[in-house]
Amino acid sequence: MAYTVLARKYRSQTFEDVIGQDAIAHTLRNAIKTDRVAHAYLFTGTRGVGKTTVARILAKSLNCLASDAPTPTPCCKCQSCIAVNAGDDIDVIEIDGATNNGVDQVRELRQNAIYRPARARFKIYIIDEVHMLTTQAFNALLKILEEPPSHVKFIFATTEPNKVLATIQSRCQRFDFSNIAPTVIAGQLRSILKLEKIKYDDEMILPLAKLANGSMRDALSLLDRLISAGAEPLSAELLEQYLGRPNSSRICDLIDKIGDSDAAGTLAVTDDLVAAGLGEVRILDSLIEFMRDLLVVKSAGPASELLIVSAEQRQRFKLLADKFDVAAIVYNITAMEKLLWSVKNSDTPRALLDALLVRFALSEHFLNIDDLLTRLQTLSSAGAIKKNNVTTTKVSADIEPPPVGQKPVPLSVDLQSIKDNWPKLLALIDEKLGPGTRVLFNSAEPVAFDNSILTISFAASAQVSKQMLERNDRIKEIGAVLGDYCQGPVRLKFELHQTQSDEAEASDAVTPGRKKNELINDTDVRTVLLGLDATVTGIREDS
């Protein structure tokens, strides 16, 4: 006997068996119970979500010979039910709209529809891909749809309802089939594997379900491919080897390198993925999917039900999310989506991919509008920074009162000790909080240490770095790291300083052309302009 693929073998036979379309199944069952079955239905939705399956179940329910009237629970054993399942029932005519799309075929349908069914209650026409019919063919259907014979039912199925004439849709009851959730697909896959007595690792079920993109038929087809490989138990490694899905651990490693601002590591992991046979488009698709998961973790927490991953991956995503903020993740997703089209149509897709990922790695944070305005104001008045004749000009970090019960810092640790060991302290920050935090201290130095309060001074041009360190409780995390060295609680105070040469240079007259060039060529400004796909049309200086 010929092998039957899983998608056909485990096709739903009754409304109770329908997967992921509970509302539609309930509505149709109730319509049959109350004798309110419409003469025409329009089933819409993506491929493999159950449109044709539900159409066949509805046909069996209307024509089941084991019942004296239409029933919501067909027997699936009578001649009519068996013939409908096989697709060769003389009273349930399945038509492919892609190949029978002309007006002549529809005229023939109308002529045959007037004759009563041979053995069943209704003559049922199931037209798949109905959107492929020509305009003339649609118009030929209008009259019989508006006043159909009592023994005729129409069921139309389409993946593109926007191409079905509004006059046709208005004469049908429309049901929109939704994509099936990955968790629902995963449950069905587990049930089928148990029935087939095939061993599997549970870690591969969710990735396989997500790879189906909401289509149960696609999920079963992919499962068939894995089973055909002949390897048991089915594992996540097989998804990479036979289905071309990137290893989730490698994608997480790539995101980890981006979060650590490690450009060299980012290129190395990307090269490993390409060497494993993955194309640039597949890498971008996987990165977008994983970045979306990070966005969920950052916005709704790692315990959110919106995060459909294994327990191990959930913990990994929680650690990765700490290296990004929501603004950076949103930007990364949109930038990758925008690049996809270029990668698909480029002769050098690898160069485009590498350039984008290195750009992510070298951009620890993207400025928002407020930061940009602050940066523009700073650039208009500040020049090159020199480390001599320091004069404090601004203090912006508030100091919290010391917590009750905390011990003061030992007297053996003083300002000079901190200055002498400043490179080591920066290395400790790099180890504990990552290179992205460490690099923000490039233009900073300790200037005072009194009563457990460490004052760190930043160059005037490093105002953005100072503001970034003051966000998201970073200042407390840094204080905790420095407290380990000082063996006691340390509170931080950030301030800006400006050298006398800076003040003199800032007081000099700056020509409008020079100022415009400085602003436009600034790295942060260029990043924002490129991200927004914008150009500078004018510069206004507010007094």
Question: What is the element layout, followed by pairings?
Answer:
Blueprint: H1 6-9, H2 22-33, E1 40-44, H3 51-63, H4 79-86, E2 92-96, H5 103-113, E3 123-128, H6 135-146, E4 152-158, H7 166-169, E5 173-176, H8 182-196, H9 205-211, H10 216-228, H11 236-242, H12 248-259, H13 263-275, H14 280-300, H15 311-321, H16 326-344, H17 349-362, H18 369-381, E6 390-395, H19 415-420, H20 422-433, H21 435-438, E7 444-450, E8 453-459, H22 463-469, H23 474-486, E9 491-499, H24 500-507, H25 512-521, H26 523-532
Parallel strand pairs: 1-4, 1-5, 2-3, 3-4, 8-9
Antiparallel strand pairs: 6-9, 7-8
Structure report:
The protein has 543 residues and is α/β, with parallel strands linked by helices. It has 4 domains: 6-176, P-loop containing nucleotide triphosphate hydrolases (Rossmann fold), CATH 3.40.50.300; 182-242, Orthogonal Bundle (Helicase, Ruva Protein, domain 3), CATH 1.10.8.60; 248-362, Up-down Bundle (Zinc Finger, Delta Prime, domain 3); 370-506, DnaA, N-terminal domain (GMP Synthetase, Chain A, domain 3), CATH 3.30.300.180. It is built from 26 helices and 9 strands. It has helices at residues 6-9, 22-33, 51-63, 79-86, 103-113, 135-146, 166-169, 182-196, 205-211, 216-228, 236-242, 248-259, 263-275, 280-300, 311-321, 326-344, 349-362, 369-381, 415-420, 422-433, 435-438, 463-469, 474-486, 500-507, 512-521, 523-532, and strands spanning 40-44, 92-96, 123-128, 152-158, 173-176, 390-395, 444-450, 453-459, 491-499. The strands form 2 sheets. The chain has a 5-stranded parallel sheet, with helices on one face. Strands 6-9-8-7 form a 4-stranded mixed sheet. α12 (248-259) runs parallel beside α15, α14 (280-300) packs across α15 and α14 (280-300) runs antiparallel to α16. The longest helix is centred in the middle third of the chain and has 21 residues, at 280-300.
